[in-house]
Amino acid sequence: MIFSSHLKANLRCVAVNVYVACNLRDKKTLWEELSNIKATSQDVVWCLCGDFNATRSQSERKGSTGREDHASEIKGFNSFIDDNIFLDIPIVGKKYTWFNSNGLAKSRLDRVLVTEEWMKKWPMCKQYVQRREVSDHCAIVVKSMEKRLVT
C-alpha cells in the first residue's frame, strides 16, 4: 500500500496493489483489513487494483465448476465494495481477465476500484484490459482521457 501525494492534482492518494489467495477466509480477512485502514484515512483518494480472486456476479465467471462458497464470495465482495463506497470503473476491451490454460474457463478476477473522490478528479477514468501474454491473467491499464473545451 502506498500513501502518496499527487502533486499536479494536489491530492493525497492511496494506491493498493491487491493479490488475495483463492480461499474465502483470506478474501474476507483482506476485505476487513482494507476497510479498517480506509475508515481511518478519509482525507485521501483511493485506488485498489489487482487480482481480487473474486467476482461480483455469476456472469463474470464462465466455464468453471461451481463452488459452494461462490454465492457467499459474490455477496461478501459486493458488500466490501458497497460498504466502502468504491466504484468499479468502466472496463474497456475483454470481459474476462483470467483464463485457464485450455481457455475454456475464464473469469473477471482483476479490476480497479476507486473512491468517488477519485472519479470526481478523473471522471473519464477507465480500465483497459490488455492481451494476455506471460501470465494466465491479463494486465489492466488505467487511463483518464481529459476532455478539454477549446474556446
Would you mind describing this structure in some detail?
The protein has 151 residues and is of the alpha+beta class. It has one domain (2-144): Endonuclease/exonuclease/phosphatase (Deoxyribonuclease I, Chain A, 4-Layer Sandwich). Helices cover 24% and strands 32% of the residues. It contains three helices and eleven strands. It has helices spanning 24-39, 70-83, 116-121; strands spanning 2-6, 11-19, 45-51, 61-62, 86-88, 91-92, 98-99, 106-107, 110-115, 125-129, 140-144. The chain has a five-stranded mixed beta sheet with strand order 1-2-3-9-5. It is globular and about 45 Å long. It starts with a strand and ends in a 7-residue tail after the last strand.
Secondary structure layout:
Layout: E1 2-6, E2 11-19, H1 24-39, E3 45-51, E4 61-62, H2 70-83, E5 86-88, E6 91-92, E7 98-99, E8 106-107, E9 110-115, H3 116-121, E10 125-129, E11 140-144
Parallel strand pairs: 2-3, 6-10
Antiparallel strand pairs: 1-2, 3-9, 4-8, 5-9, 7-8, 10-11
Tell me the structural class. Answer: alpha+beta
Looking across the biggest beta sheet, what order are the strands in? 1-2-3-9-5
Note the beta-strand portion.
25-35%
Main beta sheet strand tally, sense and closure: 5 strands, mixed
CATH superfamily (homologous) name:
Endonuclease/exonuclease/phosphatase
Helix content: 10-25%
Shape: globular
pLDDT < 50 stretches = 2-7
Q: Could you give the distance between the termini?
A: 41 Å
Number of domains: 1
The pLDDT mean sits at 86
Q: The CATH topology, please?
A: Deoxyribonuclease I, Chain A
Task: State the name of the first-level CATH class.
Answer: Alpha Beta
SSE pattern: EEHEEHEEEEEHEE
